[in-house]
Design a protein that fits this description.
Blueprint: H1 3-22, E1 39-44, E2 49-54, H2 67-79, E3 88-90, H3 93-96, E4 110-112, H4 113-123, H5 126-137, H6 140-154, E5 158-159, E6 171-172, H7 174-184, H8 188-194, E7 198-202, E8 208-212, H9 216-220, E9 227-231, E10 235-244, E11 247-256, H10 259-276, E12 277-283, E13 290-293, E14 301-306, E15 310-315, E16 323-328, E17 340-348, E18 351-359, H11 368-381
Antiparallel strand pairs: 1-2, 1-11, 3-4, 5-6, 7-8, 9-10, 10-11, 12-15, 13-14, 14-18, 16-17, 17-18
Helix pairs in contact: 2-5, 2-7, 4-5, 5-6
Length: 384
């Protein structure tokens, strides 16, 4: 690789490393959403853009919304084949004895993973959440270790002491909860449960427990759920989410004075975001962006891919002001897999963003065998 290309590659990589910092800059300054809440943050999940926030980096006890990390690990376990929805889960005495919101499970009864998952998500059931955690990790303490390991991988400011949020030692910032919620939002089956308002959970002995979603915005149709929680000391908390076109808006509020304020603030934040912003997808990491010519290559063209997904948050009415340009390096053989060969630049009224373009294969000069074969075909048959 030439010195010029190496220098250009280093600059692009540096920009990519800095981009997460830039993406956390607020794109608008709105009137304070709540004066009484301890903290809140409103983000767009696909872009990671913070729209509005207050005290968003202070770790606080989120009570029941702590389960958002448990939910994320449950769906990752399903995705990785560690468990299946139809797997049987036996409720331990420890799980059945959990205080706070519950599905009133009996020790020793068994349910499918999917049935308990629905109870945990819709009803914020601590007993169901603990039973699921034990199924995956063998014990709640082992599962809690997985939660903290995941927090470290995500690079968020969060510490978990249990899988339910009962322990006041579990703390996370509003921004950390928003990151977790954004990851969870990638699993669409989650919203099939979280958007449910009420249903009857049937126990092994035929007894039924009516489970109702504590997120009243689900009933009103403002959002498709995420999680709620509260304590007398810490106040009322909520993670609310709504999808609008290609955008998904997530609002986290911690330490509001009462449940009514919590819901009205979330309703205001989500409604304003839906009315004001949209998202335009520019590039997908796993989708070919274009093919470019390479002199001397066997096939004379190479496919280039974005190194990361790139989507742009814009204010509605500014769609036509988004300008996209592509810069490509001169491609000189040989080329190596993962080599940066250009970038996509997006200019918007809010600023500039970019993503590198890379190749996904090694490409050498034409082989002697291939070149000779082509010459022979031309000589014998007049074919090129």
């Amino acid at each position: 690789m030439s010195q010029k290309i190496r220098k250009r590659t280093a600059i692009i990589l540096l920009c990519l490393m800095l981009f997460p910092l830039f993406s956390s800059i607020r794109v608008a300054k709105a009137e304070e959403l709540s004066q009484s809440a301890k903290a809140y943050v409103l983000i767009e999940a696909q872009t990671g853009q913070i729209i509005e926030a207050k005290n968003e980096t202070e770790p606080l006890h989120g009570a029941g919304i702590t389960k958002i990390m448990s939910f994320l690990l449950f769906f990752e376990a399903l995705e990785n084949g560690i468990v299946k929805m139809e797997d049987s889960v036996s409720v331990s005495a420890e799980a059945a004895s959990k205080s706070g919101t519950s599905a009133f499970l009996d020790s020793g009864e068994s349910h499918t993973f999917g049935d308990l998952l629905k109870a945990a998500i819709v009803g914020s059931a601590n007993d169901a959440t603990c039973a699921l955690a034990e199924k995956i990790a063998g014990s709640e303490s082992a599962f809690t270790e997985q939660m903290n390991q995941k927090a470290e991988l995500l690079g968020i400011d969060a510490v978990f002491a249990d899988c339910t949020g009962i322990s006041t030692d579990s703390k996370a910032s509003a921004q950390a909860f928003a990151v977790i919620a954004s990851r969870l939002a990638k699993y669409s089956p989650f919203f099939e449960y979280s958007s449910c308002w009420t249903y009857s959970f049937v126990h092994n002995n035929g007894r039924e427990t009516e489970i109702t979603n504590s997120n009243t915005l689900v009933r009103d149709g403002t959002c498709d759920g995420m999680a709620t929680g509260s304590t007398s000391e810490g106040g009322y908390h909520m993670i609310a989410s709504a999808k609008s076109g290609g955008a998904r808006f997530i609002f986290v509020i911690l330490g509001e004075q009462n449940a009514a304020n919590r819901s009205s603030c979330a309703n205001k934040a989500i409604s304003q975001a839906v009315a004001t912003y949209g998202v335009k997808q520019i590039a997908q990491k796993d989708a070919k962006y274009k093919s470019v010519s390479v002199k001397g290559a066997e096939n004379e063209e190479v496919d280039v891919y974005p190194s990361e997904d790139l989507s742009i948050l814009y204010q509605k009415g500014e769609e036509n002001d988004i300008q996209i340009q592509v810069e490509m390096d001169e491609l000189i053989l040989p080329l190596t897999q993962g080599q940066i060969v250009g970038k996509i630049i997006v200019n918007t009224p809010a600023g500039r963003q970019s993503v590198a373009l890379e190749i996904r294969q090694d490409i050498d000069s034409k082989s002697i065998k291939g070149s000779a074969g082509k010459i022979l075909r031309i000589w014998l048959f007049g074919l090129s």
